[in-house]
Amino acid sequence: MAVSVIPSPISWPPIPANNNNNHNLLNHRPLTTAKRPYRRPSTVICSSSLKSSSSAEEKRELLKQYGLDPDEFLSEPTPSKSRRNKEGQKSGRGKQVGPPQEQTKPRETHKLLQVLGGTARRKKLLSPKSMDVRPMMEVVKGAAFGILQAAGGCPTSLRPGRWLDLYSGTGSVGIEAISRGCSEVHFVEMDPWVVSDVLRPNLEWTGFLENSVIHTVRVETYLERTKGDPFDYISVTPPYMLVDYEILMKQISESSVIGDNSFILVEYPFRTDMHETCGCLVKLADRRFGRTHLAVYGPKWAEKKRRS
């Protein structure tokens, strides 16, 4: 930063042009009334064109020679408050006041489902109003139990046995199974709110809580950890877009939940390829209900009985 001082020229007061006695006025004007010449303040020009060899001390000495404050000219200007605010917003510093966050609305339920047959027929069941839990449609559920009852040799009810309801949600499939003759149902649902506010109240309302076992875990985890006797019936009604049916059916077929005499209901979406077999079981039926499909797997003896 270079500092240079430019002295201003002396200015004299103007003298009237049309006065013949100008020389007399100059010679005889009293000294006390004569106006003194005035000098304009010196102009200080600062620039950054000093050579690199000039040190900071030399700059300060130069400014002192002209009666100037070196700290005033050599210090960096302090940014204004508005400028600091703008820079702080650009760099992400400072308190950012965003839009108020919307409070999460409590999840609500309604009674749109019902038990279709058996001892609890026509009893209403709770289901979430939101679409995060999608119960099996009643027309699909009615067709599924009709196929199972016919394949088991008893068109009016199910053969007594144990049922495994995977992705149970509201529990409508498992409750239908108990209502139609199953002795015990295991419900697998990972959402704690669905279990406490939907599934358990439905079991209490229908009087089937003592016939039920609830597992609040992921289906994949349950299939990996479960050891013991196979189930007589298994229902698989997952959220369509959140599972890979190829992997899911392979895991079921390799687990201990199925046996030689098991039946499996699988609800799957349109344009999904389902194999003709699932472990030791064969496909007994494959129905379409709009964009929803239903596959039923069972033992080979049930296939022969159904064809006959």
From TrEMBL:
**Bias regions of kind Low complexity — which residues?**
18-28
Q: Name one Pfam family in it.
A: Cons_hypoth95
Spell out the molecular function terms from Gene Ontology. methyltransferase activity
- Ranges for region Disordered: 1-117
State the UniProt keywords alphabetically: Methyltransferase, Transferase
Q: Please give a single GO biological process term from the UniProt record.
A: rRNA methylation
Q: What start and end residues bound the annotated signal peptide?
A: none
Q: Does the keyword Methyltransferase apply?
A: yes
Q: What is this protein called?
A: rRNA methyltransferase YlbH
Q: What is the lineage of its organism?
A: Eukaryota, Viridiplantae, Streptophyta, Embryophyta, Tracheophyta
